[in-house]
Design a protein that fits this description.
Chain lengths: 584, 316, 310
């Protein structure tokens, strides 16, 4: 992938330009980030110019990771300065500022500033796999059978409302998600319910210890906990005072920023938490503005109404970078993919599914359509998942091969079928354009594809199991865990009764070989063993059975005024905003 | 008159009730529900079902409706599925913002529409007239999001005259000057279509009236043209004019959705846009009812005004 | 949609006037429609509109012969290329498709999507308006109160619901558009009918026992039809704009269909770097709307010569 990335880069930005960019725009940001980071990944960064390490080095992610390169040789950006107000324009509005209930990235990015979990994925490195670092837990241990996890909690931490943080607070948050008869319980707090599904016993043996025992080994539990946006610990007193349903409008966590106010549709304002237990944030204030219209958001950046923007349309990035704006992007735990409908006349044919895989020019999609703001994807393991292997590219663009496979399948002259997608989906950029690209690619091998593009929520209501007229049903999702594969294709999570069932594997008709790999993977306590199992599962699902058509992993580009420093893109969709500072 | 007003008010309640039933029915038959909208697309059906139950979405539709109606009659518009706060509170916060934009756009469109309409109507078939008609039609035929974004690119980006998004400078303290500054581009965008419509109608009213006998008489008496236009023609065009303006006002309050989205104007239209996208029924219902109420009230007001201004109009 | 609604409203007032006129003509002379065509052909603006529209329609009909490229075939290496690119005089869109070809083909979808709803809604509202206006009583209340409900409902909600329920297609665009304009149109035909039903002709005809279908075909229909026709031509342009708004909301026809409204919407994301993509179809919509309006004005004048008699 290293070399491929380099080639793709030529299309958009010269390598030299990128280096200049990183030097000017990011300077010492990573350096400071590294100093603050708990993980010792300095080695990686010292030699990364020739490492070719997936996330860093000379590849396209350098636009963000480039800060490492620059980190060593640029002193000109100066030391981080405290002070100032940063305005951040996002492409979506937060639904609710409640980490336990929200399903919008815009909201998670904001709750990440206010809330902390016991542990977190390191937001200050682009190492893969992403290390888990302590946060509200100082240390943790796991029993030999992989079932019991104990966390030693940090002492002397207070919530924004003044309440002391302790094991009772963790329990209250756990109960809010999973214990129906608890006064804290909130039915909409669904994330945790899923993550704690194997919980057998949860207890707080003393004031600063929290322990959870599962009914089976859960190899990835720590990693799941590390995606702390969903297990942000809220102040139990706040929950009691405002009521569990109203936490969204009166958040209170332990994070480096505290909530000031939210004016619906206009702005949400945060200020530095002066009592933060760790290194305090540089910014005095941080204001988030939802600006839904892409072009308006771009103009707002150019007029200085915002300093930092999420989700720029890929086509405007080049001109803004030429105007001196800084750009940061990096790999993220996200994958845009299609499911094959096995009940479709053609989708049930393994050779047809494989043919489609070879017929898609993923590189061209990334290069031409996305201007290298994505990288090609071949499987469902995404960057950020421990088993993700950046070198793994089982398919290339080979229409001849596709035609051969189609002929072998008995369709030398191709056939006509449908593709279902949603052009307006949030978190799934350019879905409409990609669908049209696929249509063009498949037309080249004789498959005539009719597109059916539907507004997002309507789209979610599509009963895919009944849509045997369609070959493909697209979506984009991501979890920085291997367990994502279980959710997608372990038979016990799928049922013929599910509206989204594709007929590949489900509880009624399980794919036993796959289940074996996935279950063993999820229970393996040795990370290397787990990764190996998951890679095999990925291969089986996406290459041999070819039940999924993966297209790309988003790099979530951000554009910002050159004065904005320290914005670092780890392999995550959240950012450590406490390290961001303004050079003015 | 009083009896008429009372009857119309009762009819308004009926219309609102009808609107509520219709939207509720429509939303129920629309594929995709709030529970699905809130969970990731690959979430297991079990979780979706659980959320559905907690939101009361698993009840039969008539039951859902009657629960909703009972609550509304007690003044409880429910809690937003998406934002998890009071739906009425959301709409209450957004309503003044829409009022500001709508009022501003209405004033602009009335002034522009009147001027263009009168100028064109009093000089029929001249170059001025043709130009006015042309501008009007083109103005009404350009998609408003295209107009909005073009204005952004020209006046915010290239010329730097006006800010691009929102109601206030988030770094500043707000204030009227700041608000006025932010109001310019959205106002132009929202006013384009109503101005064209008003101009068109004013023109043809003026044109008709100018041809009537009494205007000819007035002219033949040697009255000045302006006097004729203002005292006689406009006065007689007033009832039609009021009807149109009321309609435009209703439309601007409820329907400047696209303008609000393009300029990130935090009004009801923008909220409706996101709420529809999330099937957030309590919020959609509250906004729609409010818009329908305003719409019908404005029409009632227009009819009453007409009756006051024109004794020939009978209120039946 | 405001424009459509208020045109509908105001046309009520005008309906009577127009109706009197045409009714009068029909009473007096069998050659009324001939006079109408004659007057129409004298109107330069209307003729110009008719010619431009005819060109657009012809181009759309013969699109496979006229258009230089396939409207959905793309060359991703030429994405966003501006007007004047070699071989692509109007440039290429965000997918690398020829803009000129898409504009030509676009008429095939955009024109029917605007015209068909007007025809359907026209007939429905003629029927409902006539029934409600002539029959009165309970039927009147039932129909007109339903119309009030539809009028008070924001068109976005209606459109979302329909497009959502039926999936993205020309079919749902047509249905949504029809539903949005049927209410104002019905109000228009209703008040025109009421005016006629109370007119001297009809009252007299009723009194002497002229059968209903004769009253309907002789008096009501022609007098109510004319204002509807005029109104219809003036809103077609607005309906093309409305389909663009539907696309903005993600509810329009499904890509990669070439349709002007969808093209404007697709181009808006890259308006600052490739303004031609959204602007050209925008101009096309405006030209179409202008042509229809000129024709409408011509019709209005032809049906009611006194109006512009200065």
């Amino acid at each position: 992938m290293h070399a491929d990335e380099e080639r793709k880069l030529d299309g958009l930005l010269s390598r030299r330009r990128l280096l200049q960019l990183s030097a000017a725009g990011f300077g010492a940001s990573l350096l400071s980030g590294l100093l603050a980071a708990c993980g010792g990944d300095d080695d990686d960064d010292d030699d990364d110019t020739d490492s070719g390490d997936s996330g860093t080095g000379d590849d396209a992610t350098e636009v963000s990771g480039g800060s490492d390169d620059a980190g060593g040789d640029s002193g000109d950006a100066g030391d981080p300065k405290a002070g100032g107000t940063l305005v951040w324009g996002m492409g979506g509005d937060a639904d609710a500022l409640d980490p336990h209930t929200t399903n919008a990235w815009a909201a998670w990015r904001q709750s990440t500033m206010m809330y902390e979990s016991l542990v977190r994925k390191d937001l200050l490195t682009d190492e893969i796999p992403v290390p888990v670092v302590p946060q509200l837990a100082e240390s943790w241990e796991v029993s030999d059978d992989g079932r019991t996890w104990s966390f030693a909690l940090r002492q002397g931490v207070t919530f924004h409302d003044g309440t002391d943080f302790n094991a009772d607070a963790v329990m209250a948050n756990y109960e809010r998600m999973s214990v129906e008869d608890s006064p804290y319980y909130y039915a909409s707090a669904w994330h945790g319910r899923f993550a704690f599904q194997y919980a057998e016993a949860v207890e707080a043996p003393d004031e600063f210890t929290w322990r959870i025992t599962h009914d089976q080994p859960v190899g990835e539990f720590l990693s799941t906990m590390g995606d702390y946006y969903w297990f942000g610990i809220a102040s139990p007193t706040q929950i009691e005072e405002v009521g569990t349903e109203n936490l969204a409008s009166s958040p209170s966590g332990t994070g480096p920023f505290r909530f000031v106010e939210r004016v619906e549709g206009q702005r949400t304002e945060f200020e530095r938490n002066e009592d933060y237990w760790g290194e305090k944030a540089y910014l005095d204030r941080l204001i988030v503005r939802p600006i839904l219209e892409d072009q308006a958001r771009v103009v707002a950046l150019q007029t200085g109404e915002i300093d930092l923007m999420s989700d720029p349309p890929p086509d405007v990035i080049e001109s803004l970078v030429n105007d001196g704006y800084a750009m940061s992007q990096g790999l993220t735990p996200q994958v845009a993919f299609y499911r094959f409908q096995f009940r479709n006349e053609y989708g049930g044919n393994q050779l047809v599914r494989q043919a489609v895989q070879w017929a898609i020019d993923r590189e061209a999609i990334a290069r031409d359509l996305f201007r290298d703001t994505v990288i090609p994807a071949y499987g469902l393991l995404s960057p950020g998942a421990p088993a993700y292997d950046p070198e793994w590219a089982p398919y290339s663009y080979d229409p001849d091969r596709a035609r051969e496979l189609l002929a072998e399948a008995g369709y030398p002259d191709g056939f006509s079928t449908k593709l279902l997608a949603a052009p307006t989906a949030s978190g799934w950029p350019q879905a409409g354009a990609v669908a049209q690209f696929i249509k063009d690619n498949l037309a080249d091998v004789g498959i005539d594809l009719e597109l059916e593009l539907t507004e997002w929520v309507t789209y979610l209501g599509i009963e895919f199991r009944e849509r045997t007229d369609a070959l493909l049903w697209g979506t984009a999702w991501g979890m920085p865990t291997n367990f994502f594969l279980n959710i997608q294709a372990e038979s016990r999570y799928r049922s013929e009764a599910d509206p989204g069932d594709q007929g590949y594997t489900n509880v009624e008709n399980p794919n036993e070989a796959l289940d074996e790999l996935l279950i063993a993977g999820s229970q393996a306590t040795d990370p290397a063993e787990a990764n190996d199992l998951y890679r095999q599962a990925n291969e089986l699902m996406c290459v041999e059975d070819a039940a999924f058509l993966s297209l790309n992993h988003d790099k979530l580009p951000h554009l910002m005024r050159p004065e904005v420093k320290g914005f670092f893109h780890s392999v995550n969709v959240n950012y450590d905003m406490s390290k961001v500072w303004l050079d003015e | 008159m009083v009896r008429y007003v009372i009857r119309r008010l009762i009819a308004t309640v009926g219309v609102l009730w009808g609107v509520s039933i219709l939207i509720f029915a429509i939303l129920q038959f629309t594929p995709g529900d709030a529970a699905r909208a809130q969970l990731p697309s690959s979430a297991p059906e079990e979780e979706v079902q659980r959320l559905r139950e907690s939101l009361g979405l698993d009840e039969p539709i008539p039951v859902q409706y009657s629960i909703w109606l009972q609550n509304v009659l007690q003044g409880d518009f429910g809690r937003s599925y998406q934002h998890r706060i009071s739906a009425f509170g959301i709409v209450k916060d957004r309503f003044p913002n829409t009022m500001i934009l709508a009022t501003s756009a209405l004033v602009v469109s009335v002034v522009v529409g009147l001027v263009i309409g009168v100028v064109a109507g009093t000089r029929p078939n001249t170059l001025t007239d043709r130009a006015a008609i042309l501008t009007g039609i083109v103005g009404a035929s350009l998609p408003s999001f295209w107009v909005g974004i073009m204005l952004l690119i020209i006046f915010s980006l290239k010329l730097g005259w006006f800010p691009a998004v929102g109601m206030y400078d988030v770094r500043g303290d707000g204030g009227l000057v700041d608000l006025a500054h932010h109001l310019v581009l959205p106002t132009i965008t929202a006013a384009a279509v109503p101005a064209a419509v008003i101009a068109r109608q004013v023109r043809s009213s003026v044109l008709e009236i100018m041809n009537l006998d009494y205007i000819r008489t007035a002219r033949s008496k040697g009255l000045r043209e302006t006097t004729v236009v203002v005292r006689h023609a406009l006065r007689n065009a007033l009832p039609t004019f009021i009807t149109i303006v009321a309609l435009q006002a209703g439309y601007l309050l409820g329907g400047s959705l696209i303008t609000e989205v393009v300029f990130s104007w935090p009004g009801m239209g923008q909220q409706l846009y996101t709420s529809v996208g999330a099937r957030d029924i309590p919020v959609i219902m509250t906004i729609t009812l409010l818009v329908a109420l305003i719409f019908t009230s404005l029409n009632l007001l227009a009819d009453l005004l007409q009756a006051v201004l024109d004794p020939r109009v009978r209120l039946t | 949609m405001s424009a459509m609604e208020s045109e509908g409203r105001v046309s009520q007032a005008k309906a009577q006037q127009l109706a009197d006129e045409i009714g009068g003509h029909r009473q007096r002379s069998r050659t009324g429609w001939r006079a109408v065509t004659h007057r129409f052909s004298q109107d330069k603006g209307a003729l110009a509109g008719a010619i431009v529209l005819a060109l657009i329609v012809l181009a759309a009909i013969f699109a496979p012969l006229v258009a230089p490229y396939d409207p959905i075939e793309s060359d991703s290496t030429l994405r966003l290329e501006p007007m004047g690119t070699e071989g692509h005089i109007l440039g290429l869109d965000f997918q690398g498709r020829d803009m000129l070809s898409r504009m030509i083909w676009g008429g095939r979808v955009s024109l029917p999507n605007a015209v068909i709803p007007v025809i359907i809604a026209g007939f429905i509202s003629l029927f409902l308006g006539l029934v409600a206006g002539y029959a009165g009583g309970l039927l009147d209340s039932a129909i007109m109160r339903s119309v009030d409900v539809l009028l008070a409902l924001p068109s976005v909600i209606l459109a979302v619901a329909i497009a959502a329920a039926m999936g993205p297609s020309s079919r749902s665009v047509i249905l949504a558009t029809t539903l949005v304009i049927v209410a104002p149109l019905t109000r228009m035909t209703y008040s025109a009918t009421r005016e006629q039903a109370e007119s001297e002709y009809v009252t007299a005809a009723r009194a002497i026992g002229v059968p209903f279908n004769r009253i309907l075909s002789r008096h009501l229909l022609p007098n109510v039809f004319a204002p509807v026709l005029v109104y219809a031509t003036t809103i077609i342009g607005l309906l093309v704009v409305f389909t663009a708004s539907l696309s903005f909301l993600g509810l329009g026809v499904s890509p990669p269909t070439a349709e002007w409204g969808l093209m404007v919407d697709e181009g808006r994301r890259v308006l600052s770097v490739a303004p031609h993509i959204a602007s050209l179809p925008g101009v096309m919509i405006a030209i179409t709307a202008l042509s229809f309006n000129l024709i409408g004005d011509g019709l209005r004048y032809a049906l009611d010569p006194r109006q512009q008699n200065t």
